[in-house]
Amino acid sequence: MGVALDKAAPRAPRGQATRRPRVLLADDHTLLLDAFRKLLEPACEVVGAVGDGHALLAAVPELRPDVIVLDIAMPLLNGLDAAREIRKTLPSARLIFLTVSDDAELAAEAFRLGAAAYLLKSSAASELFHAIRTACAGRTYTTPLVRRVPAHGPTSRAAADPGRLTERQRVVLRLLAEGRSMKQVAAILELTPRTVAFHKYRMMRALGITTSAALIQFAVKHRLV
Questions:
Q1: Structure pTM?
Q2: Cα–Cα distance between 96 and 83 in angstroms, integer?
Q3: Among 66, 62, 76, 75, which Cα is nearest to 46's?
Q4: Phi-psi label, residue 73: left if phi above 0, alpha if psi -120 to 50, beta otherwise
Q5: Strands 67-70 and 45-50: what pairing?
Q6: ∠ at Cα 68 (93, 212), nearest 5°?
Q7: Which class for 91: exposed (0-12), middle (13-18), buried (19 or more C-beta within 10 A)?
Q8: If we measure between CA atoms, which residue out of 72, 116, 126 comes closest to residue 98?
Q9: Nearest Cα to 77, choosing from 184, 203, 213, 220?
Q10: ∠ CA 68-73-77 to the nearest 5 degrees?
Q11: How far, in whole angstroms, is CA 96 from its chain's centroid?
Q12: Which of 11, 123, 125, 156 could bridge across to 42 with cysteines, CB 3.0–4.6 Å?
């Protein structure tokens, strides 16, 4: 899933002395990184693109971007924890989260960690440009696509308790949240893919979670990855 391309994406303004913002991209999907680079380059200076959280932390002090467009679910180090470290090494960088999660609580956590904007990968390209302009102007932006959390919620907080998971389940969940397939997790842990699928099923039942995306969001939110 990627940002929905549209014809409204603006090009760099002509006849202005203002320099283009320096943008660093972080996402573990190579095709998305290529698409984002081509999309942004007319209006921004894309200084780099990395595929995991550790690479992002290494690139920030070297490239010193004005804006960092990053995903939440990334291998090795998730985007939220990466943001926490970036605030220490380059506090001037404006962080724009571009993710699949429309969870309002996750968005709130991103802003608590210093995010300038929160978008979904289903957002229009023009919205990403708007978020970059807003961030560079020192303001914040949240896509209207982020859903609000119902007062009663689809599941109770008691059900969504990390303490309900076994140590083995936590390991499986961490690997899944890092973007690995069930087959890859099985190979790493020397299990069968069927056993990994069973662990995933048991976790979802224990937590009252009904989708794989929600399970990954849970892992990131509770710092299990």
A1: 0.66
A2: 10
A3: 66
A4: beta
A5: unpaired
A6: 130
A7: exposed
A8: 72
A9: 220
A10: 75
A11: 9
A12: 11
Please state the φ and ψ torsions of residue 103, each to the nearest 5 degrees: -75, 120
Q: In what order do the strands lie in the sheet with 94-99?
A: 45-50, 22-26, 67-70, 94-99, 115-120, 141-142
pLDDT of residue 139: 92
* Cβ atoms within 10 Å of 50's Cβ, excluding its own: 23
Q: Output the six-digit token pair for 158.
A: 């008691």
- Give 190-193's long-range contacts (Cβ < 8 A, gap of 24+): none
Burial class of residue 29, CB neighbours in 10 A (0-12, 13-18, 19+): middle
Q: What pLDDT tens digit does each residue of the chain (225 aa) get?
A: 455 544 444 444 444 446 789 999 998 888 888 888 888 888 889 999 998 889 999 999 999 999 999 988 787 788 888 898 999 999 999 999 998 877 777 788 888 888 999 998 888 888 889 999 999 999 999 888 886 544 334 444 444 677 778 888 888 888 888 777 788 888 888 888 888 888 888 888 888 887 777 787 788 777 776
Look-up: residue for tokens 């997790």?
185
